[in-house]
Specification:
Blueprint: H1 8-29, H2 31-38, H3 45-48, H4 62-67, E1 86-91, E2 101-105, H5 106-122, E3 130-133, H6 143-152, E4 155-158, H7 164-174, E5 178-181, H8 183-195, E6 207-210, H9 219-229, E7 232-239, E8 243-249, E9 256-258, E10 264-269, E11 276-277, E12 284-291, E13 302-311, E14 323-329, E15 334-336, E16 339-341, H10 343-351, E17 357-363, E18 371-372, E19 376-382, H11 390-404, E20 408-413
Parallel strand pairs: 3-4, 3-5, 5-6, 6-7, 15-18, 19-20
Antiparallel strand pairs: 1-2, 7-8, 8-9, 9-14, 10-11, 10-12, 12-13, 13-14, 15-16, 17-19
Helix pairs in contact: 1-2, 5-6, 8-9, 10-11
Zinc ion is lined by residues 250, 252, 257, 315, 317, 319.
């Protein structure tokens, strides 16, 4: 039976010995973890115990990995395999200048491809289909998905980002059934086609696989993409340091299934207290990951900063793995008079106002800080040809207040005012702050 159909108990009993072996490997090969675990009195795999003791082990933060880098250790002291065994080194875009490097051994790479293959397999991707993608994977871990497409046997047509004409030409001439891109770009393409009088609802594309940002899970954005393209939208989510496509949504469209079974273990924690939360239907928290079979740079209890809502019920697709919907990233969180606000949630509430708005928003705080005083300035773009009226801004503000408990100051702008992107949307514009 595959990892996607095991009961939680079966998966856990398979993972138990693998986890203990991974801890022994960390203590033997990772200077970073030898030191980190020694600081809490753990010097052997026996000291660390099993999965039921995992919550007693310290978290790993991205900043710690970064801090362990120096000239002698460009990857960091968590590098646990000789460089001769590393077959690929990806990097993260990094907001601070120097990128973080993510090394993989041949076995690591193969495992990542397996995870991504399960994830995209769940989304219904199958051999013989033609798929056009706009990933500029380049140095980034998203490149592993390209290997997964080859393993599935898809006819992959990479056109890259930044050239919409080329993409639409490929759609018209090669007639792919699948489009892979960010949700922002799928929305942009819908507008682009509408401006040119092209009806993409009758195109060959009937599946859109989105990843890279939370929008594909926002109900209204999804509805709009599906309506414009006449296609089914499913999403996938991974994280650079752990694996690509760790979660992949099945054709039931009720959240992304965990695809890392046997290779990665996940926990859900309260992001404020760090306390482990029971894996219950509807639970919300931050995902924390532990590699089970990683060799080059394995991580233990890595804090993802991704906030999710969990679904544990049985899925009609037959997979027994838990599902998540991403709520937002801790890094994007704003706190307005004590209330947590994820920019993507604001976008979803605004989009649900309906046909008067384009679905594109920009939150423009006055202060460069997580904590914001109300009202929070939000620029809302109107739909094509809609003229603003006094009542609309008020209605939007009221709706946000009712649903998210936050007071906003709504500014309506004409269609096309806010920037579009072929990559990820920037929902917060800090240029007015400070
Ligand atoms: Zn399912």
């Amino acid at each position: 039976m595959s990892e996607e159909h095991l009961s939680r108990e079966e998966q856990r009993s398979l993972d138990e010995p693998v986890f203990r072996t991974q801890i022994a490997y960390l203590l033997g090969h990772s200077a970073f973890y030898r030191e980190k675990l020694a600081s809490v009195g753990i010097r052997s795999a026996e000291d660390a115990g099993g999965l039921s003791n995992l919550h007693e082990l310290p978290f790993t933060e991205k900043d710690e990995l970064r801090a362990s880098r120096d000239k002698a250790h460009p990857i960091g002291t968590h590098l646990a395999a000789p460089m001769e065994e590393v077959v690929r080194v990806y990097s993260t875009s990094g907001t601070t200048g120097t990128p973080s490097y993510i090394p993989l051994t041949a076995e690591d790479l193969s495992n990542w491809i397996e995870i991504s293959t399960r994830s995209y397999g769940a989304s219904g991707l199958s051999a013989g289909e033609r798929m056009v993608t706009t990933y500029n994977a380049g140095p980034f871990v998203a490149g592993v998905t390209l290997d997964a497409f080859a393993r599935i046997g898809v006819c992959h047509i990479p056109v890259g980002a930044g050239n919409t004409e080329r993409l639409m030409t490929a759609v018209q001439l090669l007639k792919p059934t699948v489009l892979g891109c960010t949700p922002s770009y799928a929305m942009y393409l819908a507008e682009w086609a509408e401006e040119r009088g092209l009806d993409i609802a009758i195109s060959s594309v009937n599946k859109i696989l989105v990843a890279g940002e939370p929008g594909g899970g926002e109900p209204e954005m999804r509805r709009r993409i599906e309506a414009a393209w006449g296609a089914r939208v499913t999403e996938a989510m991974g994280i650079g340091d752990i694996s690509v496509s760790l979660w992949g949504e099945c054709t039931q469209q009720d959240g992304m299934h965990f695809s890392g079974g046997g290779l990665v273990h996940f926990e859900l924690i309260d992001p404020e207290t760090g306390e482990v939360l029971p894996l219950e239907d509807g639970a919300e928290g931050e995902l924390v990951y532990t590699h089970l079979r990683q060799r080059a740079a394995p991580l233990l209890r890595f804090r993802s900063r991704d906030r999710v809502r969990l679904s544990m019920g049985r899925c009609a697709c037959g997979r027994t793995t838990p599902r998540v919907r991403c709520i937002g990233r801790t890094d994007d969180l704003l706190i307005v008079r004590g209330v947590n606000v994820f920019p993507s949630a604001v976008r979803d509430v605004v989009a649900r106002i309906g046909g008067d708005v384009s679905g594109t928003i920009s939150i423009q705080p006055n202060v460069k800080a997580v904590k914001q005083a109300p009202p929070l300035p939000v620029v809302v773009e109107l739909a094509r040809g809609v003229t603003p009226d006094q009542g609309l801004a008020k209605r939007i503000g009221q709706r946000i207040r009712d649903e998210l408990l936050v007071t906003t100051e709504i500014t309506l702008v004409p269609f096309g005012t806010l920037p579009r992107t072929d990559y990820k949307s920037k929902l917060v514009d800090w240029s007015r702050s400070g």
